[in-house]
Amino acid sequence: MDALELLKLNLLSPMVLAFFLGALARGLRSDLAFPEALYTALSIYLLFAIGLKGGVELSKTPLALLLLPALATLFLGLFRPLSSYLLARRLLGVGREDAGALAAHYGSVSAVTFLAALTFAQGVGHRPEGFLPTLVALLEVPGIVVALLLAKRQGGLGEALPEVLTGKSVVLLLGGLLVGALSGEAGMERVKAFFVDPFYGALTLFLLDLGMVAASRLSALRRVGLRLLLFGAGLALLHGALGVYLGHLAGLSVGGATVLGAMAASASYIAAPAAVRLALPVVEVGGMFLSFARLVAFAIALVAMLALYLFLTRTWMGTAIRAVAQDREAMALMGADPHRIYVVTSAVGGGMAGLAAALLSIQYSVHPHFGAAFGPLTFMICVLGGLGNMPGAFVAAFIMSEVIALGGVTWSTEMGYVVAFALFIVLMFLRPGGLLARRE
Known about the structure:
This protein is an all-alpha fold and 440 residues long. It folds into 3 domains: 3-280, Na+/H+ antiporter like fold (Up-down Bundle), CATH 1.20.1530; 291-366; 374-440, no CATH class. The chain has 21 helices and 2 strands. The chain has helices spanning 3-11, 14-27, 36-59, 63-92, 96-107, 111-123, 132-151, 157-165, 168-195, 199-216, 221-224, 226-249, 254-265, 271-279, 292-314, 316-326, 328-333, 338-361, 375-385, 390-410, 413-430; strands at 282-285, 288-291. A two-stranded antiparallel ribbon has the order 1-2. Helix 15 (292-314) runs antiparallel to helix 18 (338-361). The radius of gyration is 29 Å and the shape is elongated.
């Protein structure tokens, strides 16, 4: 079979055409839609049918043939979340929890991708090994667990692990495997009319709905940024190539190695999101997902800033601090003790710096050079806002954080800082006294 015939066989199959039909229907704004109950029923049927057929094949497979593929899959289950986590921290510059959430998704496996790869391999005449559904569970569970351990080293995992182990995909695949392995071919003959013959018809309907879902989410590509898209595509290529290579080394057939590579290249959108929501809780605000750590840090910082502003503007000591900053000699003549005011100012400033460090420590990993990354940025914000001008510092901090975040999403974290410093220089020429400085 040449490449053209292979391409025609796959693109013109009912399953693939149904996927494109679903995408076209969504693009034409058709009112075609699957009830949620139908989607759930189809996914349950397909996953259990795959597990059932895999269990029958497993009952005929010697355990020695399963050992090497299982070890290769476990290695993938450890390597994928580790590589995803490290690359997310290094290339995307995200925090520990965000990197862990990404690693959980890319470290898990998509049951839908497994279905599609299995169908593809069978369609081109390379029948995969029957025990491959077993490898799905071996690949899914370690990937999520390792990623969550990296993201959150205490708490949360005890709730997330049962969610993974009792999730629909794992229960149906492993349950189907167990039923098929115990009943064998004799038992399969009794349910063949329901679980074998209608399988591809149900898969066609499933892919029709999946096409509509995929088309409806195309608009999200504009919001995630080019770097995140390249990150996802690069991980898929890296993990997929490694999966095919390890499958070949483990003695899998061409079809089996292809399916293992597709499993390794996939990312979960069922089991991993559910586990991440439990272990790394987030709050959705205006379409953005914020971890509780960041939300708590922002709330505490906002309250602290308001308290400091009221202290400086509504109390005698706060007024004295601002007055000494403007004219120390005049305040001494008015009976104020500048030395005492300096001590209070140092204590308040040190307390605010300590609070800022504590809030940062719950979002980032702590190391000896932890504060060096924030020193230049803090100086830039203070100068840009206007020395002694709290509202100006707040506005400057908001502007700089947005510029760095947008630059990081569009290009890189380092480029975000470059753009922020360039903007700082321009604004200093335009407003040398600070953003909210009064004109005299």
